[in-house]
Amino acid sequence: MIKKGLVGMAVLGLSVLYASGDISHKELSEEVGYIKTLGKELKGEMKKRMKDDPTGLQAAYFCAKSAHDITKKINAAFPKGVRVYRTALKYRNPDNRPDATDKEVMEKMVEALRNGNFEKRAVAVKTKNGARRVYMPLLTGKTCLKCHGEIEKIDPKVKETIAKKYPEDKATGFKEGELRGVIVAEMKSGSKEER
């Protein structure tokens, strides 16, 4: 049974394969594994930097300098036809700009959060071109607010770094528990057969 907040995706031209409690772990474990690979690497690096510098400045430097390269390196190790990426409705790096499918899925997640029927679980959809995407939501935690919270509460040096590296930044103003973005694993149609 698909959760209420996700039913609308089928109407928006997306085919929902699995949602919330109905995810078949066997069928989706591979994609979730790809997501966890990227998430674990980035989270580990961010934790180190936040421990060394609680202002968030070192974490901001890390994101600006290394997060994209780590994502590329991890994707290079995956099988042909598989990619993992981060995106958000309010993105910082223009390379992480969402496409129409990403936007539709995240808007439904935001709606589910607002309506109180959100569950932090993977959602899988089939895109119009036949690829399968699995979305893992990332909620804003207390530590995230160091770089993504209300602009007037962000350390001045962090704000300066963000403004310099990302002049068109859209990723501030978050409150704890809001949808910060998603990590997505995309498996192109036929990619399993190509292995």
Give a short overview.
The chain is 45% helix and 16% strand. It is an alpha+beta fold. The two termini are 32 Å apart.
Structure commentary:
- By secondary structure, the chain is α+β, with helices and mostly antiparallel strands.
- The protein is built from 6 helices and 5 strands; from the N terminus they run H-E-H-H-E-H-E-E-H-H-E.
- It has a 5-stranded antiparallel β-sheet with strand order 1-3-4-5-2, with helices on both faces.
- Helix 1 packs antiparallel against helix 4, helix 2 packs antiparallel against helix 3 and helix 3 packs across helix 6.
- The protein is globular, with a radius of gyration of 17 Å.
β-strand number: 5
Roughly what is the average pLDDT, rounded to an integer?
Answer: 84
Reported for the largest beta sheet, the result is: 5 strands, antiparallel
- Which residues sit in consecutive blocks of at least 5 with pLDDT less than 50? 1-23
Q: What proportion strand?
A: 15-25%
Instruction: Spell the H/E element sequence.
Output: HEHHEHEEHHE
Q: Determine the N-to-C terminus distance.
A: 32 Å
Structural class: alpha+beta
Gyration radius, in Å: 17 Å
